[in-house]
Amino acid sequence: MIDNELTRIIRDRRSIRKYKSEQLTEEQLQTLLECGFLAPSGGNSQNWHVTVVQSQDYLGRLSEANRQNILADKDLPQEIKDRFTGSGASVSFGAPTVLFISAKGSDVNACFLAEHIVLAAESLGLGSCYLGGIIRFMKAGGKEFIDELGIPDGYDLLYGIAVGTPDEAPDAKPRDYSKVNYIR
Ligand SMILES: Cc1cc2nc3c(=O)[nH]c(=O)nc-3n(C[C@H](O)[C@H](O)[C@H](O)COP(=O)(O)O)c2cc1C
Q1: Largest pairwise CA distance in the chain
Q2: Domain locations in the chain?
Q3: Residue 75 class from Cβ within 10 Å (0-12 exposed, 13-18 middle, 19+ buried)?
Q4: Which residue has the least CA distance to atom 25 on ligand 1?
Q5: Which of 80, 129, 175 to probe ligand 1 with, by most ligand atoms within 8 A of CB?
Q6: What is the DSSP string of 116-159?
Q7: Is the predicted pLDDT of residue 65 greater than 90, yes or no?
Q8: Which architecture characterizes domain 5-164 according to CATH?
Q9: CA distance 33 to 146
Q10: CB 145 within 8 A of CB 68
Q11: What does the alpha-carbon distance between residue 103 and residue 124 come to, in Å, rounded to a whole number?
Q12: Residue pLDDT, tens place only, 115-144
């Protein structure tokens, strides 16, 4: 791979599941948002929406509701339930900011916005992690948490992105580089 600033950022990014509590600066947050909104979209439709959640009260209530839901699930093995104690109980893994991403119609463009944000976070020395599992809970048993987000009408909540200062440096997950064919 050619080594340059962007390829290093792409190579070094990891999903971070342990964070320090310090909040993003406003400049960092606005940089992430601006990088997200610079993503391409079909016909420049920009059919996305970002809800910035920095309310620790909201994240705490969501975490506890999700935890109670997990603990009440009779089909889940105890070893899974045990993960939802201590720092594992936090839906954002302790990250002080979660960006909830929504889309109107096709979700393709919102995925580009999200990945711009994730790579920009890495470039700023911040960690991030997509949060898909919590959305399943919010859409099933936690609809009031979606209402609180104030997402515009017609938009569908896709996932969250936890962002914060990393407190771990995990190894890269394996990748299958054979998923390509060539017509030359
Ligand atoms: C749409 C999407 C949803 C995800 N949801 C979760 C999640 O709910 N919890 C979690 O810990 N990781 C989640 N991840 C992170 C993946 O597990 C992770 O990207 C994958 O294991 C590869 O690891 P890496 O990101 O460190 O390269 C999600 C990733 C994507 C793209």
Answers
A1: 56
A2: 5-164
A3: exposed
A4: 15
A5: 129
A6: HHHHHHHHTT-EEEEE-HHHHHHHHT-HHHHHHHTPPTT-EEEE
A7: yes
A8: 3-Layer(aba) Sandwich (3.40)
A9: 20
A10: no
A11: 26
A12: 999 999 999 999 999 999 999 999 998 899
